[in-house]
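REQUEST FORM: STRUCTURE PREDICTION
Request ID: SP-0412
Submitted by: Lab K.M.
Chain count: 1
Length (residues): 687
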Amino acid sequence: MGGLRRSRPRVLALLQTAGVLLISSVRDATAQPCPNLCNAHGQCSDPDGVCDCYEGWTGADCSLMICPYGPAWADKAVSVDTAHQDMECSNRGLCNRGTGVCSCEDDRFEGAACERKSCSSDCLTVGRCLSMEYYASQKDPGEGTVYTYEDIWDAEMMYGCVCDDGYFGPDCSLRECPSGDDPLTGTTSDTYNGVQYNEKQVITCTASGGTFTLAFRGETTDNIPYDATADEVLDYFEELSTVTNDFYTAVDVDFDDDAACSVSGNKFTIEFLQDFGNLPLIVADSSNLKMSIATSSAKMTIATTKDGSKEDHDCSDRGICDYTTGICSCSTGYDTSDGYGNEGQRGDCGYATASVTACPGETSCTGHGTCEGTPTYACQCSNGYTGADCSLYTCPYGNSWFSLPTDDEESHLTTGKAECADMGLCDRTTGACSCMDGFEGAACDTMSCPGDPACNDHGDCLSMSALAEAATSNGDALDLTYGATPNDPDTWDFEMIQGCDCDDGYFGYDCSLMSCPYGDDPMTKYQFNEVHEITCETDDDDDGYFTLTFREETTASISVSAGADDVEAALEALDSITYVDVYFDAGLKDDDATGTVCSSSETTFYVEFKYPTDDVPLMTYAASGPTISIKEYQAGTKEYIECSGRGLCDYTTGLCSCFTGYGASDGQGSEGLLDNCGYVLPIAGTD
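STATUS: Completed
RESULT:
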């Protein structure tokens, strides 16, 4: 909270009249062992009077509540490729210190710790809002290997909409149109596509009793008796909502025998008559089947004997889908079909009403594609265009925010690119993505920074990789990288997620809070300032110079003939330093002593840090001419804490509200201009 940044002095107005110091609520600062007796939410330590707060409480007097923690959505890396450390409100909300409740970024994040990405518009009540982890576990095994997504940082944080049947889109706002087979492809004269077939799957059942179930696209039949007939299996299977049977028989069931199962193993084939394309495998559960032969066990196997090779495209590739209604607008010469090129009720434009002699479009393929000609008269659209007549634009693709993993613990990578990154809606008339709230970029593949404007104009909006480059420890750069290895599943977010790097004096996930002055606790004793020892040796040439660097800030050039005052002025000109003393004798500490800081016989001088206090990092140097060395002479042991631990910060103003008996200091426990509560006020009295 700004602890490594300079807080410029704020003047505390002291009202003095006729030599009388006016102080409200006059009390001796030592009257209470600890501020407000720690409000009964902490333990008071003697003799320093510092509160050690109980769990859930914070503040110098333990009056403030801590909010729940969660992995940060965006933060600065702590080591190479290591980020998303636990932070209050997951660094996407502000903590209400009076209640201990996070106020999450509006409509974008939710949960006690703001640890969950909100689903856009709650999926409009026509979808389920699921985590990446749970969504991965719910994959239909018939679609292929079910990969886990449990160990990556966002497994239980990134949520998305899984839409009900007939709906799609990142917020489930779009309606699916009837899909079907292109009526002009797949014939013996189609040299481009070849002859096309329905999907056929063969099931072998070995059992003498019990029941089994069949599942297709995640939906499971009721229990089917082992001795069911072909018609009975058909009836059970057509009860599934995941097969297309609105107007026509969904499947054909062909038995080799009279019953589904037998001791020797019966085979039966299911051919899909109204669901086209390469379909997922049927999944069988044989756990309730029985076998009368003790040496054998009941079992079922399923295999595809004929991959479905027909198209399964919106409006059968012979019309345009209106995604607001889910109704096909068929191209001239096409109408709804039965799935086999005849007139029917599917609503899919799969019926050619007359002989076809041209590709669709007022001009062939709207001038945005190539016509295949006879016999298919299908458009091959140019890059950037789509639709049966190539009249629609495609939108930019980006790494998907919410999709099934492509391997164990792998998602959001370049292998899973999606239009508008699955976080936006494509405007087919312009080819531009309309991103969901909180996302930006041409492909909606970047999470926006909080604030309006970004970071409330008090910070820089940076990607996770850029935040890593900005990471510091005690003010010194860590030189870290995040996501430098391409397609690393652990750092998938290196360019996709952004966060705020707040300006000096501001903090919070959106840089909306103001930092208060820091300082040393005036009640803690036997502590020391940090002192650096510098030696400088030069020849007789007085043209040499050097610079000093502290917390990534570098002084102006300092001449080898400079005095202690010159070095002091150069250091205090840095934003990271308010007060230092520079002297030649570590015992006398006389900062008025004369002499130059460099000489041919080697000069030693000392820099004592008066503000900031605490254990500061060692300064570094650059020199042109002289030989310089710097080492720590004395480690800083003082505190450098908010309001010196003797007041509470008002984060809306950046001003300390000091506890009774404390006021502005000079950073060293005496009265001064730093409004940081670091000075013990004298008992009020009259001269």
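NOTES: The longest strand covers residues 603-611.
Reviewed by: T.R.
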